[in-house]
Amino acid sequence: MDCFYAAVHMRDDPALKGKPVIIGGSPTGRGVVAAASYEVRRYGVHSAMPAARAVKLCPHAVFIKPDFRRYEAESRAIMEIFHDFTPLVQPASLDEAYLDVTDHLGALGSATAVAQAIRRRVREERRLTVSVGVGPNRLIAKIASDFHKPDGLTVVKPGQVQAFLDPLPVRRLHGVGPATEKALADLGVHTIADLRSLPLETLETRFGRHGGGLYHYSRGVDERPVRVERERKSLGSERTYARDVRRLDDMEAHVDDLASRVAAGLERREIAARTVTVKVRYPDFTTLTRARTLPYPTTSAGRIAAVARELLRQTEAARHGVRLLGVTASGLVQGGPVQLWLFDEP
Question: Which of 49, 91, 279, 304 could disulfide-link to 259, CB 3.0 to 4.6 Å?
Fold first, then answer.
């Protein structure tokens, strides 16, 4: 989706049309830009930028507080459109998905025609634009989707893959972040064509197993399937203790461990959570839960643990002791937006 969060607000409020719009926290505090409209990007504003910096670059920008419930509802509506074309839909985030249409071309006859139909339906039914990349695998389709935005369509046929990839910077490849990009630059590698010139042995020696992936990706080879899994509602971890835990410090240490397990599960599944719940069972088997919904989805073990400890202290566990503790994450978002917390909330 093109500039999804901002586009939803601009669609619903005609007064925002053509204005520089920033979705994020307050520029007078420690807010961060969650999304920036194309109009404000011309001033150098981009996502993850401190809001205070953004307002200096574009003083007349309109700041809007994120409304993730609205975005999630819109995302579900758009994903339903995708499912009308193929059952093989893998959401990558609220505003992005991989679709495998290999065996689902129907009367349209080609992947390009399917892409055109998807763009048309999203525009007509949701009054939003989507940029689509068509390719022989996930890697190529993802890279192609970033071309000709907004409202773009880029098709890369199998015979065009290498010519498409070679001139691109290596950071376009899946798995190449700032650290890998710098390490490749140290080897004299800046473009995908440069990367393709390195032997497999050199890449594996320098990057281990990741080197093999770089070798294949530089050649346009990507065997990852589009995975469809049943939607998970929650992810949790709990433990019953052989002896009742009496000290609050010990309980908090156990909660930290449970939170780490939950966070690891979220990361493995590439999902984030908005709600943290703590389960407490006293020695007399009285069981209760306390929950808190966060302003942003998270996968952070530290963040989940901090909220869980706070919820624990809202119970009478310190007075009664506990025989069981549990931490659960819910309100899950597939690859959802993650707010990184540098400091505790006020």
Answer: 304
